[in-house]
């Protein structure tokens, strides 16, 4: 943590009566793995989230770039609201999924590109991911290919992520997801607290800071958040402490 970001303070304890908690998944609740399907889910994570949600009057939501079905699998035991695919789909919020034209063709093109270049293709329910972690020298090629896809499939946008380039439906983002959630009970009127680790989380961290709450940046890197935790293990400790204190 050598960068002078001004976001070095650990977050304060959660206030069960006042806070709404929004949590990213990968790199926030669980450690990033070499492959997206190789993450290790801590035992009881889903149940812990359920208990915390109960303490917060239901004002806890997962906000992730992952597909909703994956989140539901990984967080079995948590039945609360979830926003997946960067905001394009959700559970328990009465929102219709954003499903642009050409999804199947886009996914086929992505899969072919990965097969040709030895990259890992991550299928997602409303887009996909091109992972160059195993071949970082192909970052530029991958980013160019993704940009080309958005001209062929104008309903989709490029989303840069950690060692990956994603295509997701246009017009969605995590800060827009928070804006949407803030108008839905029981989130309405509560102080927004958002925790996330990636560039995709920065708009949401900034949104929480700008709306009377605060952001918690997980890991290194410049951020709009006023607080920081080193790694998912520290996030889980912070959440566990909230369960005892609330
Ligand atoms: Mg993340």
From TrEMBL:
Give the matching Pfam families. Trehalose_PPase
Record InterPro entries: HAD-like_sf (IPR036412), HAD-SF_hydro_IIB (IPR006379), HAD_sf (IPR023214), OTSB-like (IPR044651), Trehalose_PPase (IPR003337)
Give the matching Gene3D superfamilies. HAD superfamily/HAD-like, Trehalose-6-phosphate phosphatase related protein, domain 2
Pathway info: Glycan biosynthesis; trehalose biosynthesis
Q: Which reaction does it catalyse?
A: alpha,alpha-trehalose 6-phosphate + H2O = alpha,alpha-trehalose + phosphate
Task: Kindly report, in one word, the top-level EC class recorded for this enzyme.
Answer: hydrolase
| GO MF annotations, alphabetized | metal ion binding; trehalose-phosphatase activity
Q: Which UniProt keywords apply?
A: Hydrolase, Magnesium, Metal-binding
The answer to whether UniProt assigns keyword Protease to this entry is: no
This protein's record includes keyword Transferase: no
The cofactor named in the record is: Mg(2+)
Q: Which NCBIfam families match?
A: HAD-SF-IIB (TIGR01484), T6PP (TIGR00685)
What family does the entry list? Answer: Belongs to the trehalose phosphatase family.
What this chain does, per the record?
A: Removes the phosphate from trehalose 6-phosphate to produce free trehalose.
Q: Kindly provide the name given to this protein in its UniProt entry.
A: Trehalose 6-phosphate phosphatase
Q: Which organism is it from?
A: Rhodobacter aestuarii
């Amino acid at each position: 943590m050598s960068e002078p970001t001004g976001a070095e303070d650990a977050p304060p304890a959660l206030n069960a009566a006042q806070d709404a908690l929004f949590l990213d998944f990968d790199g926030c609740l669980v450690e990033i793995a070499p492959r997206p399907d190789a993450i290790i889910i801590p035992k009881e994570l889903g149940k812990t989230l359920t208990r915390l949600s109960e303490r917060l009057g239901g004002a806890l939501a997962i906000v992730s770039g992952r597909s909703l079905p994956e989140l539901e699998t990984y967080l079995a035991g948590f039945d609360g609201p979830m926003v997946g695919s960067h905001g394009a789909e959700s559970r328990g919020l009465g929102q219709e999924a954003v499903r642009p034209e050409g999804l199947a063709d886009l996914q086929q093109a992505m899969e072919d590109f990965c097969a040709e270049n030895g990259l890992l293709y991550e299928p997602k329910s409303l887009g996909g991911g091109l992972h160059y972690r195993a071949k970082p020298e192909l970052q530029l090629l991958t980013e160019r290919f993704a940009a080309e896809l958005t001209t062929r499939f104008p309903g989709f946008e490029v989303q840069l992520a950690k060692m990956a380039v994603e295509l997701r439906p246009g017009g969605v983002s995590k800060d827009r997801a928070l804006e949407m959630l803030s108008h839905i009970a029981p989130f309405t009127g509560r102080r927004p607290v958002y925790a996330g680790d990636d560039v995709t989380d920065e708009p949401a961290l900034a949104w929480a800071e700008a709306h009377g709450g605060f952001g918690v940046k997980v890991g290194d890197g410049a951020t709009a958040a006023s607080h920081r935790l080193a790694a998912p293990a520290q996030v889980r400790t912070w959440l566990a402490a909230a369960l005892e204190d609330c």
